[in-house]
Amino acid sequence: MSNNIVGNAYRDIIEDVINSSRIDFEDSGIDETTLRELQLLWQERLTMSGVANFPWDPEPMQEPEPGNGGAAVNYEMSSPLYAGGGVPISATPQAFSNPAMAAMRAAQHIQEFAREERVPAEIADESIKGVMKRAGLDDAGDLDGSNGGGLILPGGGRIAQVDGSSEELELTRESVDRLLKLHILRQKSGKSEPAANHSLPSNITLRRNRQSRKIELILSQVDGALDSSDDDDSDDEDDDDIANVGAGGSSAGHRKNNAGDDSDAINSDLDDPDDEINSQDDEENEDSGMIMLCLYDKVTRTKNKWKCVLKDGVVNVNGKDYLFGKGSGEYEW
Amino acid sequence: MSASNVYYELYRRSSIGVALIDSLDELIKDSKIQPQLAMKILSTFDRSISEALAEKVKSTRLSFKGHLDTYRFCDDVWTFIILDVHFKMEGNEAIVADKIKIVANNVKKPGEQ
């Protein structure tokens, strides 16, 4: 049963690759934990594929994702409180030239995160207040030269300073609250798409600072949806044409449907049969696996009888993997 | 360093190769590693799986019969699509499949005599 050897063989390959790559990781200045993470991800994916039983299956997998997610939340929670949300803002000063805008973005971002990560609303609110407080102060400091309002207390005594700042805080908080509510409403009303779009710029900034899987997921989902919608619109003539130009393989089926189409370009007679075979192959491969990767020693044919001598093969049949050192096949055409 | 050219990249399409590529993609997306490092790891994988197949499963045999649907020989690579395949594994284990695609590279690598 060559399926039984697969688990151990794959384990050996993984260990060999991981150990051999240690020096490459060191040369690139990458931490050993990342190498370990690669190994775990690799093993996990193989286990999920179910192509064989693996020696690492019984022991519980250390899932690296929750740890990272937790760290991300902590970071997110603490940074606005301590630094007044200064981290993302100062990272891209040009983008947020207006501090109030920056505060809005930060607040919006915190809320989104609170929703995604199910952080208690009070804590998120505290963070937002922190951001707003900070931005409000800065904002007022800039504007008050013309305003002459409560902040520039000419008396300037020790008490007056404290009073002034707090008074001024309440003022900005009111206006900011209004804006915040507006944003919340907007987010609630157009929950899925607009929220994701709104958050994109700040998400990207954040991703530079730390790892965020959630955001990755949002981004890749957008990609996925686009791709599939392209594929699904098979009756659309425009799509068909685009597909013909872009990737001939996937369009053969469509073209067959539109047989009356006058899209017989110069190459189409030659391309059609090949495309059809290719597209069939590729589709089936991606769907069901069912592939044998190997080396050939000899391939012979007498009339319609073929014989081949194969070596060093990996076969995926009916969802299981098999390995062979020597293989032979006979088939007639 | 000619080592990267010596081994076929063929096996990257196998389950274990795809699992590795997906894992590397994930690490690259999280900016935990650079794509260059991932390429290095992949060529290490090419070597490792080629050696493992050549050395550790040398004696394992497999034979099959079927109906040849498509054959192609291009760039020194044979591609067969075989229908109604009957596999015989070691230990007389038999497996039947509707269809299998075989991609086979030359045992003799380019430049080898």
Automatic annotation (TrEMBL), chain B:
Keywords linked to the UniProt accession: Nucleus, Transcription, Transcription regulation
Principal subcellular localisation of the protein: nucleus
InterPro entries named among the record's database cross-references: TFIIA_a-hlx (IPR009083), TFIIA_b-brl (IPR009088), TFIIA_gsu (IPR003194), TFIIA_gsu_C (IPR015871), TFIIA_gsu_N (IPR015872)
Ranges for domain Transcription initiation factor IIA gamma subunit C-terminal: 65-106
Origin superkingdom: Eukaryota
GO cellular component term of the entry, any: transcription factor TFIIA complex
Pfam families referenced in this protein's UniProt entry, alphabetically: TFIIA_gamma_C, TFIIA_gamma_N
GO molecular function: RNA polymerase II core promoter sequence-specific DNA binding; TBP-class protein binding
Domain Transcription initiation factor IIA gamma subunit N-terminal stretches: 7-53
Cross-referenced SUPFAM superfamilies: Transcription factor IIA (TFIIA), alpha-helical domain (SSF47396), Transcription factor IIA (TFIIA), beta-barrel domain (SSF50784)
Keyword Transcription regulation found: yes
GO BP annotation list: positive regulation of transcription initiation by RNA polymerase II; RNA polymerase II preinitiation complex assembly
Subcellular locations according to the entry: Nucleus
Family to which this protein belongs: Belongs to the TFIIA subunit 2 family.
Chain's role: TFIIA is a component of the transcription machinery of RNA polymerase II and plays an important role in transcriptional activation. TFIIA in a complex with TBP mediates transcriptional activity.
SUBUNIT field: TFIIA is a heterodimer composed of the large TOA1 and the small TOA2 subunits.
Protein name (record): Transcription initiation factor IIA subunit 2
